[in-house]
Model the fold of this input.
Amino acid sequence: MNNHKTRWVLLVFVVVNLFGFLAQKRFLFTTLKINFLLVVNALLLLMYFFNNIRLSKLDKTNPNAMIRSVMIGTLLKMVVFVSVAMVYTTQIKVPVGMPTLISSMGLYLIYTWMEIKGELIKK
Done:
């Protein structure tokens, strides 16, 4: 795995977690469900590493296989994201809210962008 791109992903993870813990401690954002964002952040980090392991075993000379693999990884992250939202809302019985879902989607886009950019830099 490329150490440079892993450092950036871990930095994003730590910054989001620090922001979440500080916001939760000071009650800064009452409309955001911070616990939900922290869980989504952790799952997206795990999915990022899972996808990187999967992409590292891929044949780099076949561009069709690479595009399929990136698309499958993106779809897999989306399914995990939606599943977490559904489980959270059924277990907690509290609506997640649009600002929390939009923030989570922002995290999803950041991790996906970093994953795809990291693959393109390798070329």
Remarks:
- Helices lie at 3-26, 34-56, 63-92, 98-122.
- The mean pLDDT is 80.
- The chain has one domain: 3-122.
